[in-house]
Amino acid sequence: MLREAHKIIGYVVVILVCFCPSLKAQDAPSVHWLSFEALEDSLAVRPKKVFIDFYTDWCTYCRKMDKVVFTKPDVIKVLNEQYYAVRFDAETNASITFGGRQFINDQVGESRTPVHQIAQLLALRGGKFTAPTLICLDEEFNVITRHFEYMDSNKLLQALE
Questions:
Q1: Cβ(30)–Cβ(22) under 8 Å?
Q2: Could you tell me where the DSSP H helices lie in 91-161?
Q3: How do residues 25-45 score in pLDDT, each as one tens digit?
């Protein structure tokens, strides 16, 4: 009877570890990503520099940055302490209210890769959007730098200085 109970407990532990990855990484630090709406509230309370990661679901380098760069403790620390960090899907269909204006994706149905108005406003290079696009803004929401490329953690940390 005791042996069967130990077997059952062992199976439960294996199932939890395999199928509940959040249990393994509960204490792992992560970037505190904000939405544009939360960013506006945060800026009103405490001005701070802003970092925006414009990505798309199909972008291989965006996924690589998520897994390799935005998980590095040094990157997490700088972004969380010195910036408000925003991740924004440049092709989202969501309606976003920011700065008293409503922004939509007015290219849906007109383009195979429709770009949201916020990405059009901040993240175009030569009239086109390329992912990933990384933007640093000052406390007054003025663009400091734009990067239209994958950046490893060392290069990103240099850009954030």
A1: no
A2: 117-122, 153-160
A3: 556 899 999 998 899 899 999
Beta carbons within 10 angstroms of residue 22's beta carbon: 7
Structural domain span for residue 90: 27-160
Please provide the DSSP assignment of 25-89 as one string.
TTT-----EE-HHHHHHHHHHS--EEEEEEE-TT-HHHHHIIIIITTSHHHHHHHHHHEEEEEEE
3-state SS, residue 9: helix
Nearest to 143 by CA among 156, 155, 134: 134
The dihedral formed by the CA atoms of 123, 113, 32 and 156, expressed in degrees to the nearest 10? -50
pLDDT tens digits for range 130-141: 999 999 999 988
| Overall domain count for the chain | 1
Q: In angstroms, rounded to a whole number, what is the distance separating the alpha carbons of residues 74 and 137?
A: 20
Tell me which H or E stretch contains 5.
helix 2-19
1, part of any domain: no
What CATH number is associated with residue 128?
A: 3.40.30.10
Full-model pTM: 0.81
Angle (CA) 94 99 56, round 5°: 35
- The answer to the question of residue 53 being in a domain is yes
Is residue 83 included in any domain, yes or no?
yes
